[in-house]
Every structure is written in structure tokens, then in C-alpha cells.
Design brief:
alpha+beta; about 45% helix; 11 strands; 3-stranded mixed sheet; SH3 type barrels; 5-stranded antiparallel sheet; Substrate Binding Domain Of Dnak, Chain:A, Domain 2; PX Domain; 11 helices; elongated
């Protein structure tokens, strides 16, 4: 049965199976059962196709059923004071449909754990080893972009009421400041663990607080996407060969394993901008171009993971990269899922320097970064749109125009042959060759984006994801600032012990130092990534136009001896 819906965000289609929708546009949904987070419907222009379920809400009467709309973007939560970023269309809601047999989202079976390596060794008798399956250990609220409410928050609220804290709690219990548990941490309601096995250090650098570098830095390659099958060929999937330099021994992982890790990272690291995974795609998952694109973007994702001083040391990430034994894999996976130092409790693992920082100075620094990240987000989107349009022109318009020019030159050559007494074969051949040269140049233009623009778009896509994380992280810091100011005012009025106010200020320093360290790391990576992106683009452009020039010079020489 068709349903009416409204678009919450604009979405630009990227292939023939999808359709574009505009914010507030009225839509018709053919079925409210999503496929991998995508719905099929019709826009107001009569176009039919797929669009992200998280970008729309179904319109129902007040007497409607127990429906919860698809959108749960954290940046759109009430009370949010930052720019709105639509949810990632690649994210689907696990459990939103029952009979899901897709490669990325099928149920995980604990009976088997690691992806089989490509079968080339003798003695296997042609039988594939079981592929990695996991139980659905996390619910739909732990999808990318959602920072789930820690399990400890109920205990925090209870302990707060017993302690009788006089600092008010936010009325908006859906804000990310509350859901993340940071409010409870600031108010001192997150219980201290008897033993904290992990610790992450922040030190003062030349540009302020920074994460202490990983004492054992490493890199990890992502190679050889290989199509494999299971269930006697009924099920197909792509595995990737990962080789961390720390052990120099490969493991094989599917995209859904990356997705499991990504959700663990989001669940644990409240104040860190976790790089987004490459997007999912509803159709064409085994097409060569899509597989190559996903591999390129997984390489960038892995570079950011291994270069981050905190994320690279995470036990769950190390387990993901290094574990080859099935039994050990299951143990490590369950240990990661039972990790108590997540969300607000993760803040207990952060060790900050003793240097004093004025609260107002920190707030000014955060405001400056907020303005910068908003401007960068806009400019990244602008460059993405321009580069994407240029790719379309290279593949379509430029090639066609050069082909037309080449055909026109060859038509001239053919016409010159119509009156033989006055025909000059050398000239005719040179003009004909010129036409073929421009056809070749057109093909060169069509192939060129693979050498330069694709890398640019991959980098821009990664930074769109990183920038979209900061609104929530900055919102956490803003909430912490507000609690400090409120507690100090109450202390000055004699309604709160100074000791309790100092405790709130001390815990706010942890959040402030963590955000500043994350800002510094972002800038450090930004400089390196955009330097590499621009250098690569310009070098490839020079090589390209040199090749074009060589083709034209070769053709020009054909006219020299006429």
C-alpha cells in the first residue's frame, strides 16, 4: 500500500536505480519495509526509484500506529545549536526487516568467525571454510552517526538523586549531551571503576593539547578485493586482504566486519571524530567500478584509523586487524562488546596535563573551530559538486565533443578525395589522422578521472564524514561549559559547595582537553591529506596534458613535408 512521506533532507542520486529528493518534498512510498536502509518510491516530479530511508519520514494521522520515523540523525535533535548534517545514506537500520539476505547485513553466526582466505592451496577438496558470521550484538540505535546512551546512565541518574546534586539536568533528555552520558560524567555521576586497564594521554604541544602519539605506530594495507561464495554459491560477498605492518601477516575481512568495528568505535569513543566508512549501495555491489571505489575509500579510512593516536591503540581495532584464530576471534569480539569503558566511561581513561587553561580561552578556541569547520564543510561540499560535475563532463561531454571534432576532420578528408586530379593523399591522410587523434584525446579525457578526480572525491568524501561528526562533539563541550558556569554561579550564591563546583570544572577540563586534542589531530591530518590530494591532482594533470600534447605534436609533424 502506498504511503505519503516527506523528505527531511535533500539527496542527490548517484546511479540509475536512485532518484533525487529535495528537503520538504512530498513523496510516495510504495512500501515502508526498507531494503538495507533504502526505500522505493516516487518523488514530486514523477520519478521512481530508491532513496535513503533515514532521509524521510512517513506522514500518518494522529491515530496512526506505533510507527517511529526512519530519521534519527543526532545533528537534528532538539536543542542542537550547530549546523544540520543529514544522516549518511549508506547507513541502514539493522533489524528494520526480518528476512535480510544481503551481503552486508545478514545475521552473524557465532559458529564461524573468520573470512576464509582465497583458496589456492591443495588439500581443500574444493570445500570452502566457513565464513565469518556474528550474532546481532547491537541494536538499530548503534548505527553510524548515532552515539548511543551508555548502560551506566540509569545508575548515574539514581546515584545523582541520592547525592542530591543541586546542578539542574537538561530538560531535553534527547540531546546528544545527555544521551552520550557526558552530562552524567560532568556532574560526577559516572561511577569510578575499581581498576581501569586502559589509559590515553593528552600532552601540551606547540599548538595546545594533543594526543600522545602511539608508541608503536603502524600502517595497514587494504588489497585484493575478491568475490567469494558460500552456501554452495547461493551467497556471494567481497573479502579484503588486510596486512598490518606490526605483524606483516594478512587477515581477510568482509565489509560487514568493518561495519561491526565501526559501530564499536562509535559506541566507545564519545569525543573522537571516527572516520565514516565508505557508503553502502543498494544495487550493483559486485560491479567492478563500485568494488574499486570501495577499496580506495577503505584505504583512506584505514590510513586515518592507523594514524589516530587513540583509535589505533584500541584493543578492538587491534583484534580486528590481527586475529586469525576462530576461537580467539569470538572471545575478542565478545570482550569488545562487553567493554565497560565506553561512552561517558571512556572519559575516565583520559589523562590530561596539569597546565591551567582559562575556561573562556577554551570556549573561544572551540567557537573559532566551530566557525572554521562550518566553512570548511561548505567549501568541501562545493568542491565535491564541482569535481563530480567535471567527472561527468570528462566521461560524457568532453569525449563526445572531441569525437564530433574528430569526425568533422575526417569528413573533410573524405571530401578532399572526391576529385582525384586535385587530391593530395599526404594532406588527406594528415587530416584524417588529425580526426583520429582527437577521437583518441576524447577517450583519454574519459579515462582521466580515474587518475586524478577520483582521489580528490575520495578525500573530500572522507572529510565530509569527519566534519559531520564535530557538531555533536562540540555540543558536548558546550553542554559541559554550561554546567561549569551554572555550578560556579550556584557556588557564588552559596547554594553549592565549592568543592563540588571544582569537581565539575575539573571534569569539564577533561572534555575540553579531549576536544582540543581532537581538533589538533584533525588539523594535522587535514594539512597532510590536502597537500597530498593537491600534489597528486596537479601531477596527474601535468602528465595528462603532456600525453595530449605528445599526441598533437606527433600529428602536427605529418604536415611538415607536404
Amino acid at each position: 500500500m502506498a504511503l505519503k512521506a516527506r523528505a527531511l533532507y535533500s539527496f542527490q542520486s548517484e546511479n540509475k536505480e536512485e532518484i533525487s529528493i529535495q528537503e520538504n518534498e512530498e513523496l510516495v512510498i510504495f512500501s515502508e519495509n526498507s531494503l538495507d536502509g533504502w526505500l522505493q518510491g516516487q518523488n514530486s516530479r514523477g520519478e521512481t526509484g530508491l532513496f535513503p530511508a533515514s532521509y524521510v519520514e512517513i506522514l500518518r494521522s494522529r491515530s496512526g500506529s506505533n510507527y517511529t520515523d526512519y530519521s534519527s540523525s543526532p545533528t537534528g535533535s532538539p536543542g542542537h545549536d550547530y549546523y544540520t548534517t543529514p544522516p549518511n545514506p549508506s547507513i541502514s537500520y539493522q533489524g528494520s526487516f526480518e528476512d535480510d539476505d544481503d551481503d552486508d547485513w545478514d545475521d552473524w553466526d557465532d559458529a564461524c568467525t573468520v573470512v576464509e582466505e582465497p583458496r589456492s592451496a591443495p588439500g581443500t577438496n574444493g570445500h570452502p571454510s566457513p565464513s565469518l558470521q556474528y550474532p546481532a550484538a547491537y541494536d538499530h540505535q548503534q548505527h553510524a552517526g548515532y552515539r548511543p546512551k551508555p548502560a551506566l546512565e540509569r545508575q548515574d541518574s539514581m546515584s545523582s538523586s541520592k547525592r542530591g546534586s543541586v546542578v539542574g539536568r537538561n530538560l531535553n533528555r534527547f540531546s546528544c549531551f545527555v544521551r552520550s552520558g557526558v552530562e552524567a560524567f560532568i556532574l560526577g555521576d559516572v561511577p569510578l571503576m575499581s581498576k581501569i586497564a586502559e589509559a590515553y594521554f593528552i600532552e601540551m604541544g606547540s599548538k595546545g593539547p594533543q594526543w600522545k602519539p602511539n608508541p608503536h605506530p603502524f600502517i595497514c594495507s587494504v588489497e585484493d578485493p575478491t568475490k567469494q561464495t558460500k552456501f554452495k554459491g547461493i551467497k556471494s560477498y567481497i573479502s579484503y586482504k588486510l596486512t598490518p605492518s606490526s605483524i606483516n601477516s594478512p587477515v581477510y575481512r568482509r565489509y560487514k566486519h568493518f561495519d561491526w568495528l565501526y559501530n564499536r568505535l562509535l559506541h566507545k569513543f564519545t569525543v573522537i571524530s571516527v572516520p565514516h566508512l565508505p557508503e553502502k549501495q543498494a544495487t550493483g555491489r559486485f560491479e567492478e567500478d563500485f568494488i574499486e571505489k570501495r577499496k580506495r575509500r577503505l584505504i583512506l579510512w584505514m590510513e586515518h584509523m592507523t594514524s589516530h593516536p587513540v583509535l589505533s591503540q584500541y584493543e578492538g581495532f587491534q583484534h580486528f586487524l590481527c586475529c586469525r584464530d576462530e576461537k580467539q576471534w569470538k572471545l575478542g569480539k565478545r570482550r569488545a562488546e562487553k567493554d565497560e569503558m565506553v561512552g561517558a566511561s571512556f572519559l575516565l581513561t583520559i589523562q590530561i596535563p596539569t597546565e591551567h587553561q582559562d575556561l573562556q580561552d577554551v570556549e573561544d578556541r572551540v567557537d573559532a573551530f566551530k566557525a572554521f569547520s562550518k566553512k570548511m564543510d561548505d567549501s568541501v561540499l562545493q568542491l565535491t559538486n564541482v569535481a563530480s560535475e567535471l567527472v561527468r563532463k570528462h566521461v560524457g561531454g568532453f569525449r563526445k565533443e572531441f569525437q564530433k571534432l574528430g569526425n568533422a576532420f575526417q569528413a573533410i578528408s573524405h571530401s578532399f578525395q572526391m576529385d582525384p586530379p586535385y587530391s593530395l593523399d599526404a594532406l588527406n591522410n594528415a587530416i584524417s589522422h588529425t580526426g583520429k587523434t582527437y577521437e583518441t584525446v576524447g577517450e583519454m579525457f574519459a579515462e582521466q578521472p580515474k587518475n586524478d578526480l577520483f582521489l580528490m572525491l575520495d578525500t573530500l568524501s572522507l572529510y565530509q564524514g569527519l566534519l559531520s561528526n564535530f557538531p555533536d562533539i562540540i555540543h558536548l563541550q558546550k553542554g559541559a561549559f554550561a554546567k561549569v558556569k551554572e555550578s560556579q554561579r550556584m557556588s557564588d550564591e552559596g547554594r553549592m559547595d565549592q568543592e563540588e563546583a571544582d569537581g565539575i570544572r575539573k571534569r569539564c577540563r577533561v572534555v575540553g582537553f579531549a576536544l582540543q586534542a581532537e581538533m589538533n589531530h584533525f588539523h594535522e591530518r587535514r594539512v597532510a591529506d590536502f597537500k597530498r590530494m593537491m600534489q597528486s591532482y596537479l601531477k596527474q594533470q601535468i602528465i595528462f596534458y603532456q600525453r595530449v600534447s605528445q599526441q598533437l605534436e606527433k600529428t602536427l609533424r605529418m604536415y611538415d613535408n607536404l
